Amino acid sequence: MTKYQFIIASILFFAFSNTNAQEIISLETAVKVALENNYEIKIASNNSLINATNVTVGNAGMLPTVAATITDNNRVQNSSQTLQNGTTNSLDNAKNNSLNYGVNLDWTVFDGFKMFAKLDQLKELQKLGEAQLKQTILTKISAVTSTYFDLVQQQQQLKALDSTIVISNQRLALAQNRFTIGKASKLEVLNAQVDLNTDKVSLLRQKDLYANTKILFNQILARDTKTDFKVIDTIKVDANLVLNELTSLAEKQNPQLEAQIIALKVAELQLKQVRANRYPSLKLSTGYNLANTQASLGFATATSAKGFNYGFSAALNIFDGLSQNRNEKIAHLQIDNSKLILEEQKLALQSQLATSFQTYTTNLELISLEEKNEAIAKQNLAITLDKFKIGTITTLEFRAAQLNYVNAKVRNSNAQFQAKLSEIALKELAGIINLN
């Protein structure tokens, strides 16, 4: 099981079938589809697998290299040889060829511990890839969740607008009846009709926004943008988040902070590799080779040799134009930069948590207040409607009560949505992957 598959399995506890038209899609299903289809996650998963594949002792330079070689050289040339006694031998189109083949092994047995630092660095790069994958998954889950509850909020607003149209239709019917029996003027009917049309325009605009958000949601899920669906009709906000607990979790599992900690370790291991150049290096070599040579002219027309060869070589850098000192100084500066970036990241994370938590607590208070406002506005509308039916209040007063109720429902829905966004942001900063 890959790291990508493991993270998905840890998030999702059961599988869901593909949704049909207008079927209610749950948040769990939406996240599952996004994790399976999203291109960014697939790319990040492949990059993580690349880093994991690179973690081998061979890639760190700890293993020997074995190579089989063969070399075949052939020549055709006019040759002439003059011996010491003055005799001259010559031959046109003389053929000469040599064939060498064998197997050779080279092994660096000591390089100042550079290979060990390289292996540790490869392991840290693997962790870095996993942290980047986690960040990609967290970001995508947040995007899916935010857009999902945006759709929930818009559905709630559609219901509010539907209800106000029902009320506006009742008002128009009452106005027409009152006009028919001579208890109201034509102006009251026209005003009721205008307000009804205004409500219909608001409903159409909300439907357009809802449809476009559904297209965006399908795009985030990386599926056909024409797929039709509905979402649940309630927003449940986790009101039990604690700043100290979130801060503690963020210090341990925030992917961006984790990645910067790993980057610092990588820089420190890079310095170890640079320092290794101050030590001598020792290489062993051995092999088995065969050589055949044939010549048309000369003292020996054919020679052959075969057998083992072995040896070692050692090298120590004595002076390289002060490049070693320069490289070590650069490595130290890179470590200092990594430390500064890490401290900056910690401070930024603390600031984001504090501001997001303040917004979160404010939104929780707004939910409580807007729920009360909606209840009061609903009660006020019911009383106003009864009075309007018996003609004891004006149409303007009734319309004001109607708009107050619709606005109260919309504000209540928006307060819940904003609180949910604050919750999502806090959990993303804390590195929490769950759908509660």
Automatic annotation (TrEMBL):
It holds the Pfam family OEP. Keywords: Cell outer membrane, Membrane, Signal, Transmembrane, Transmembrane beta strand, Transport. It comes from the Bacteria. It is found in: Cell outer membrane. InterPro entries: OMP_efflux, TolC-like. Residues 1-21 form the signal peptide. Belongs to the outer membrane factor (OMF) (TC 1.B.17) family. This is TolC family protein.
